[in-house]
Structure formats: C-alpha cells, structure tokens
Amino acid sequence: MTMLKHWYESKKPKKPVHKPLPETVLPCKKYDAIVVGAGPGGASAAYFMAKEGLDVLLLERGPYPGAKNCGGASLIAEHTHKLFPNFWEECECERIITQQAYWLMTEDSILASSFQSLKLAAAPFNRFTVKRRNLYQWLCDKAVSAGAELHLNHQVDQVLFDEGQAVGVEMSPPNQNRFLADIIILADGANSLLAEQAGLIPQVSPQDLALYVKETIALPAEVIEERFNLLPGNGTIIGLIGHPTAGFNGTGSIHTFKESININVGMAIADFAASGIRPYELLERIKKHPLIQPLLSGGVSLEYGSSAIPEGGYHAIPELVHPGLLIVGDAASLVNGTHGFNLAMWSGFFAAQAAYQAKISRDFSQKKLSLYRTLLNESFVMQDLKANAKMAALQRNVPYLFNLYSHLANETAYQMSKVYTMPKKAKRNLIFKKITSIQPLTKMASDLWKVIKVIQ
Ligand SMILES: Cc1cc2nc3c(=O)[nH]c(=O)nc-3n(C[C@H](O)[C@H](O)[C@H](O)COP(=O)(O)OP(=O)(O)OC[C@H]3O[C@@H](n4cnc5c(N)ncnc54)[C@H](O)[C@@H]3O)c2cc1C
C-alpha cells in the first residue's frame, strides 16, 4: 500500500514551489519570450516568434546546438517542408530514404520485410536521414537570422514565478543571472526537470520513459550502398525487433548516413531496472549478431551516447499550458513511437502562434495561451498520438509481444524454408505443432485481438 501510495503521489504534479521574484534583482532587459532548449522544438518556437517580430531569447546549455545529442535520425520530409519549404536546400541532409525495412530477429535469424522504391527519391521526398548537429544548427541559424538572441552555455536552473504567473528564468552557475519575459517556453527535452521542479508536470514514470543507446560507425559511402543495396545518395532505415531488446518490448534501428551508420536500441527504464541489463549490452547484442556483423565489418566507431525518449504516448501528456508558460516537444511528451522531431517542430510552431496572439492582446493568461493546445488538438500531432493512445498500454500488458512473436515468425519461416522428404501435409502439421508449442492458438488469438483493438 505504501509503495502504491508513493507511485500515485509521484504521478501527481508536486505542489508548485515557486520562488518569489525579489524586487531588488532586476535584469537589464525584458524579452517578449524566453525559450529554454535549442532543440527542434525550442529553435522552431524561437524562429516563428522572431519572424512575427517578437523579442526572443533562446537559451541552450550546450556549447553549440546539438552538443548534448549524438548521431543522427530520420526526418519526415512533408511535415518539415510544410513548416520550412524546400528545407533540403538549406539543411544538410544525409541520404534520401528510399527503403524502409523491419527485421524480426532471433539470435541466429532475421525475417525481413522491406519496401524500396525510386518514387520515394523524388522531390518533395518522403524521409531523409540528418545529423543532429546539422539539424539543430540549421534551425538555430534560422531563429537567429529572424532576430532571436541565442545564448549558448546557458543552463536554466529554474523558472521564476510571480503570483503563479511565469515571468522569467534563473541560470545555473557560472551565469547566475536572471532573464525576464512575458512568456516562457520550456523545450528542454525528455524528462523536463524544470517543469517537474516547478510543479507543472508530474514526475515521468520509468515505464513511460525509454532509455536509448546509440553508436555511429564510419564506413565509406560506396560500402554502405553495396551492403544495403542502395543507389548512390539513397538510404535505408531498418527497424530491429525481438532479439536486440533481450526479451523486452523495446526497439532498435539502423539508419544509414552519407559515410556512417547509426545503431540505436532501447527500452523502458523500468525494464532496465527490473532486468539488471545494462544499456550498452543491448547495443552489443546487435553488433555481435552473426547476420549484422558483416554489415559493420571494417567500420570505425565515431560516437557513442545515450538519451531518453518519452514513450508514454497520448495518456502521458501533461498539462501543457500554464499562466505565462507553454511546454513543447519531448518536454511535453509529444513523441509517437520514436518519432519526435516533427512533433517538436510543429509544437514549437503552434506555441509561437499562441505566444504571438497573447502578445498582441497583452494577455498572457492560461486561457489566452490555450490556443496552443487547441492548435495541437486540431493537428496531426495530437490526432496521431490519440490514434496510438493504447500502444503504450499494450506494450505493458503484453510484455512478451515483440520477442515471442519474432521467435514465432522466424520459426515459421525456418520450417517453411526447410526442405523435408516428408509429404506436404505432414510438413504443415509439423509447422502447426512447432508454432503452437511456442504459443497456444487461444493465446495467439487473444494477443491478436488486443493488437486489433489498438490499431483499429
Ligand atoms: C536514440 C534516439 C533516436 C531517435 N530517432 C528519431 C528519429 O529517427 N526521428 C524522429 O523524429 N525522432 C527521433 N528521436 C526523438 C527526437 O530526438 C526527439 O523527439 C526530439 O529531439 C525532440 O526535440 P526537443 O527540441 O523537444 O528536445 P531535444 O532535442 O532533446 O532538445 C532539448 C534541448 O534543450 C537543452 N536543455 C535541456 N535542459 C536545459 C536547461 N536546463 N537549460 C538550457 N538548455 C537545456 C538540451 O541541451 C537540448 O539541446 C530519437 C530519439 C532518440 C533518443
């Protein structure tokens, strides 16, 4: 009971501990808006507000945009193109994704489903791989050229409030100064400690937060193209399911870049804690897989890192609008599966629109700023998250889903591929017996029903 009570208490936002603003400490300048975090969410919010003529301060703790992230990821072209037309002419993209594959894996086999089409290589394209550093830098450059002020090496320590209204931020040492603004936008990424500390959101549960490890491995462009069967400049993204996450419901992926490939793998922090598995061990499971090893052969490790992704889905989204304050991107748990870049950029865009309307009416109340939530609700961001709302619960309720069905699918494929001298009918019976010994038919039907209920 005590444990349950503790969990329940931690799900509720803590009572706000708002430090009052001392009248004696006056900063030199007051901005229209301060954005905390120069990732895709924060930089987009800063850009669109500055473009509308707002006086914007963008604060980033890293020495350069993207410094706190490693490797790269995929960007959905249409979502980005609608916000930043023909962005591929300005932002350095790595490869045009023409192939999307899923590999269901066991320790010694892979059942692959793959789609490749040259139609996906035509403008306005479908997906690109991008290096995070290039993406973050490009977005920050846009914000700065639109008029935003970017301060690097500035870690925000806390949000300042005046009678419940957010009015500014205080820096961590050595920049222990304060900045004031009419609107604060929190874009500080997964597990926003600033929002939690201010009592604006509950503590993120370890079941809703996944930890991912990633490694970037350098290989010559021609080697990548030959090994992954790609035309020059084209790329692939491969989702890895089953074996990489050691029996838990996580995912892995391989992304191809110009002259490197990225391997990502992760699962819920709660599963790491329960299993005692160390995050790097999952990466080793992929790199040591006998069918993946040859794809990496001769590669040189360039970077290694880890980051969190909020994976609680729609039901884990906290209150995003507060007096004088909006929360965007990962800080707002706006991630669908592992797709977060575009949701972060669009939430930054919607937050900028709400901030602009608030500025022209000189009304920074929660009610006025709720335009942000309205725009989010009407967009693909919330509608897609809502459509996948039951996914997180399914993964929790059927913890063996990915691993068991990867085994089952691979065993079926193996038996079907294997040539026996026995007659076809006997072979079919053998396959049926093999797969139902892994999971009884009734259990399979019940799992299938659970999946249908989620995706319908
Ligand atoms: C391994 C991995 C692979 C992924 N792959 C993809 C993919 O292929 N496609 C996709 O769409 N998404 C992917 N994502 C998700 C994507 O990275 C995020 O959804 C996206 O980066 C969210 O953007 P954001 O601006 O909200 O937060 P972030 O990108 O995390 O940026 C937050 C910024 O805030 C700064 N910051 C934090 N705290 C402070 C503070 N107190 N003061 C000042 N600055 C602060 C950080 O340094 C950082 O620069 C992946 C995530 C991971 C971990």
Shape field = globular
According to CATH, the fold-level topology of the largest domain is FAD/NAD(P)-binding domain
Question: What small molecules accompany the polymer chains?
Answer: flavin-adenine dinucleotide
The largest pleated sheet is described as: 9 strands, mixed
State the distance separating the first and last CA atoms.
Answer: 36 Å
Q: What is the residue-mean pLDDT, rounded to a whole number?
A: 92
- Assembly classification: single chain
Structural class: alpha/beta
Helix content: 25-40%
Radius of gyration: 24 Å
- Supply the CATH architecture of the largest domain: 3-Layer(bba) Sandwich
By CATH's scheme, which homologous superfamily of the largest domain applies?
Answer: FAD/NAD(P)-binding domain
The CATH class of the largest domain turns out to be Alpha Beta
How many domains? The number is: 3
Number of strands: 17
Structural overview:
The chain is α/β, with parallel strands linked by helices and 456 residues long. It folds into three domains: 2-68 and 132-203 and 315-387, 3-Layer(bba) Sandwich (FAD/NAD(P)-binding domain); 209-310, D-Amino Acid Oxidase, Chain A, domain 2; 398-455, no CATH class. 37% of the residues lie in helices and 26% in strands. The chain contains 17 helices and 17 strands. The strands form two sheets. Strands 3, 4, 5, 6, 11, 12, 13, 14 and 15 form a nine-stranded mixed β-sheet that branches. Strands 1, 2, 7, 8, 9, 10, 16 and 17 form an eight-stranded mixed β-sheet that branches. Helix 2 runs parallel beside helix 4 (132-145), helix 2 (40-51) packs parallel to helix 10 and helix 10 (341-361) packs antiparallel against helix 12. It is globular and about 85 Å long. It starts with a helix and ends with a helix. The model is unreliable at 1-10 (pLDDT under 50). Flavin-adenine dinucleotide is lined by residues 36-42, 59-62, 68, 73-74, 155-156, 187-189, 194, 212, 214, 264, 307, 309, 329-331, 335, 338-342, 344.
